Structure formats: structure tokens, C-alpha cells
Amino acid sequence: MEPCRLCRANAELRESHIVPAFVYRWQKDTSSTGYLRVGQRINVRAQDGLKCRFLCDACEGRLSAWETTFARDFFLPFHEQAQTTFEYGEWMAKFCVSVSWRALSYMQQHCEHAKFDRSFAPDAAEALSVWADFLLGKRPDIGRFEQHLLPFGAISDADGNLPANMQRYLVRAVEIDRLCNNQSAVTFAKLGHVILVGFVREPEAPLWKGTKVDIDKGTIAPQRLEVPHWLLKYLAGRANRLAQLESGLSLRQREAIGRTQRLNAQRVAESETLQARLEDKRLRRGRSKTDVGDD
Q1: pLDDT, tens digit, for every residue of 139-196?
Q2: What contacts 247, CB < 8 A, 6 or more positions away?
């Protein structure tokens, strides 16, 4: 019996996903091998993502309902059916807040970040409290702790400054983080083609255009999105980190990946992993999409 991280009631806690389970299922189903590889444990195949004893049954069910709606009405149509315009209700804000709250709550306890903890501790504590009250129905809004959603597709063109694997990072990576500079602090959740950002302290909120999630209802549609330059630099840095981690794959694991792919060439050909690699190759060569199939 431990306090639930959300409602604080003493209960037998569930093994809860910090990033919703449907994201990992999608990531495996659309990969070339059907396996995951997680962070520093790059040489160990994984079947699931980050879980820990976190929520009671009631709170797990509460968050699960919003996850189901988000996956059915936005995530899967956007990822698998190329749908680009969506009408959403209050479930969108509930889901986004639930991810930002889980990411911040988990990382405050398990991941040391001296600058964030020292400079933004009061803001983080207030954000966690406001988000929890919103999820529990104790308040109707989230105040200054806004939620922002960035959807990604194929990069149409790019200059030579992008990492060689930028497209694959933007559409394939799944991770959480806390970001901060001298004045801004946010939570970051990368869910395949979607990035969720939760404001902890953001004095430059007007720089975010076309990304804010409305509390009651709203529309997601193709439009010009604008975000601070530091976020774009961060994304490029994460793509470089992914490349660095993958360079640590052992010869044994590289051979295992090759065997798995040879046994199911059809899966490889239809995988998002291959498509993202081809898109990265196209960007590097500065060629049009129609030329990719000639390689």
C-alpha cells in the first residue's frame, strides 16, 4: 500500500506506463523488426517501454479512458491513415495534461537535472499540482501551464545543417524529457510523429503559434507552426544523440537485426523505419520523393 502519485490515496499501485502503451505498440508494429531498443540499453531488445509503480486502479482507469480516445480519434488516424484535420473535445487537453504530468512527476523523482531542480522547483511543484487537480476534476483549467502539440510528417526540404537522421528521429523516436534554459522550462514528450510540450515556466509563450491545445474543444489542421529556436536546436541534438547511441550497437546485435529483417523482407519493405531512412537519404541528396525508388 503506497500513495497514488495522482490522487494520493493509499492503494496497491499498478505498473503504469509513463508514455502510454499504445505508442509503444504502434512503434513495434511499424518497425522493421518488431522490437524496441531503449536508450543506454541499446544492445538489449525490449518488448515494452518505461513502466513503474505509479497509479492506483481508479486513476489508471481515468487516464486510460483519455488514452483510448486520443489513440482512436487522433493518434492512429494521423499515423496510419494520413488524416490531417481533426476536431477534438476536452479529451485532448486531458490526455496531453496526463502525459505532461506523468513525465514531470516521474522525472522529478527519478532523473537528476540540477539546473531544472534549482531554478524551476517552485514552478514544477505548482505545475504538478495544477495538472493533477485538472485531471481529478477539481479545477476547470490549467492556467499558465499550457499544453502544446506539434504533429510531424515528412520534411519537404532542408539545408545542410540538419542531422543525417533527422527525419527518422522526428517520426520514430519515443522519449520524455525536461527542458530548460535561463528563463523557460517545459516538459517534453515525443510520441512518434507527435510532440507534446507542457509549460512549466514560459515567459515567451507568444513565440508558440499554431500549437496550443484548447481546454474544451478545437481543431488540428495543416497550418504554419512557429516555436522558439531553442526547441529546434534541441530536436537536432536529440537526433544526433540517437545516432550516437545506435553507433554503440554491437556486432552481435547488428547481425541479429539483419537476420530478423532477412526472415521477413515484406515487413521491412512496408515498415515506417525503412520509409524514414529513405526520406533521410532523399534530404541528404537533395532529390525529389519520386527519385527515391530508383536507388
Answers
A1: 999 999 999 999 988 777 666 678 999 999 999 999 999 999 999 999 999 999 999 9
A2: none
Question: Does a structural domain hold residue 141?
Answer: yes
- The set of residues, in sequence order, having a beta carbon less than 8 Å from that of 292 and lying 6+ positions away, is 278, 279, 281, 282
Query: Is there a domain that residue 294 lies in?
Result: no
Q: Which of 125, 114, 101, 129 lies closest to 187, judged by CA?
A: 101
Domains in the chain, number: 1
Residue 16 and residue 52 in contact, taking contact as beta carbons nearer than 8 Å? yes
In a domain, 295, yes or no: no
- Does residue 111 form part of some domain? yes
pLDDT single digits (tens) 91-106: 999 999 999 999 999 9
Kindly tell me the burial class for residue 196, based on how many C-beta atoms sit within 10 Å of its own C-beta (0-12, 13-18, 19 or more): buried
Q: Tell me, yes or no, if the pTM score tops 0.85.
A: yes
> Which of 201, 100, 91, 89 has its CA nearest to residue 148?
100
238-265 burial: b if 16+ Cβ within 10 Å, else e: bbeebeeeeeeeeeeeeebbeebbeeee
Distance CA 268, CA 30 (A): 9
Cα end-to-end span (Å), the chain: 59
Residue 207 lies in domain: 2-288
> If DSSP codes are grouped into helix, strand and coil, which group holds residue 158?
coil
Q: Are 270 and 279 in contact (CB under 8 A)?
A: no
Question: How far does CA 255 lie from the centroid of its chain?
Answer: 29
Residue 268 near residue 32, CB atoms below 8 Å: yes
- Give the list of residues 6+ apart from residue 82 with CB closer than 8 angstroms, or none: none
